[in-house]
Amino acid sequence: MAIIQFSVAPLGTGQTSLSSYVADIHRVLAEEGIEAQLTPMSTIIEGPLETLLGVIAKVHELPFASGADRVLTVIQIDDRRDKPAAAAAKVASVREKLGRA
Length: 101
Fold this sequence. Notes:
The chain has helices at residues 19-31, 49-65, 87-97; strands spanning 2-11, 36-38, 43-47, 70-79. The protein is of the alpha+beta class. The protein has one domain: Alpha-Beta Plaits (2-Layer Sandwich), CATH 3.30.70. A four-stranded antiparallel β-sheet has the order 2-3-1-4, covered by helices on one side. α1 (19-31) crosses α2. The radius of gyration is 15 Å and the shape is globular. The model has no long low-confidence stretch (mean pLDDT 94). This is Thiamine-binding protein domain-containing protein.
């Protein structure tokens, strides 16, 4: 299972706020059955790599449909294959080592 952190930034919209675009992305993720963790700077999703990449391609197109002239999407992939991985487990591991479990 892969863990992907991504952000989609529409350019050429004439505004600096991105929250409506982020909301549109999260609606699509929910429709696709993808659980997402929203952070102040990005979104984190987990699942089969091929599925996640397909969903990211879909949400990358959303700002164009809303009038953006250019879209910058940044993707970071953690694809661990030696054992199951989950975002929550990664955070728990660090918290444990800090004595904050």
